[in-house]
Amino acid sequence: MDRTFVEKVREFNRYYLVAMNLLGNHYLDSEYSASDARVLFELYDNNGCNAKDIVESLHIDKSYLSKILAKYEKQGYLDRIPSIKDKRYYDLYLNDKGKAMAEELMEKSNVDIANILQHLDNEQQQLFIQSLETITRLLRKEDSDESCTI
């Protein structure tokens, strides 16, 4: 692979993380890191998935995920129910309190993104969206047939 290509991707990643306020331990001025919030969003979008699904989807360390899930359970956001399909796993469900927290963070994220990108005119917004769709399409891997579509 061309070294310049790799360097450009790394340069973009460094810029994007800062530009979109994704660095630091307090995502959206909350007590959560961006990784913590991402797990919360996955649980919100995929209620009933298990930890294995999240590990595979986010490529997150199992022990790190376990700590995040334990924190959410302690905070009263998460219910673990033994899986009917496989007794080795628990299905994970955000309860009403957890859903409310996820929705609050999603709304804050929407406002934050709108503020960051407010300088773009309609034509630039369309170009931005097309670029995001192109990147997503190029990076997308085969969708799995698992019951949980994270």
The DSSP helix count reads 6
The description of the largest β-sheet is: 2 strands, antiparallel
Coarse structural class: mainly alpha
Ends distance: 29 Å
Task: Describe the strand arrangement of the main beta sheet, using strand numbers.
Answer: 1-2
The geometry reads as: globular
Q: What is the string of helix and strand elements? A: HHHHEEHH
CA gyration radius, whole angstroms: 18 Å
SS strand fraction: 5-15%
DSSP E strands, number: 2
Portion of residues within helices: 55-70%
Report the uncertain regions.
Answer: 144-150
Mean pLDDT: 91
Descriptive report:
The protein has 150 residues and is mainly alpha-helical. 59% of the residues lie in helices and 7% in strands. It has helices spanning 3-19, 34-45, 51-58, 62-74, 96-116, 122-139, and strands at 78-82, 90-94. A hairpin with a 7-residue loop joins strand 1 and strand 2 (90-94). Helix 2 crosses helix 5. The radius of gyration is 18 Å and the shape is globular. The two termini are 29 Å apart.
Write the layout of secondary structure elements.
Layout: H1 3-19, H2 34-45, H3 51-58, H4 62-74, E1 78-82, E2 90-94, H5 96-116, H6 122-139
Antiparallel strand pairs: 1-2
Helix pairs in contact: 2-5
Question: Which descriptors would you attach to this protein?
Answer:
mainly alpha; disordered C terminus
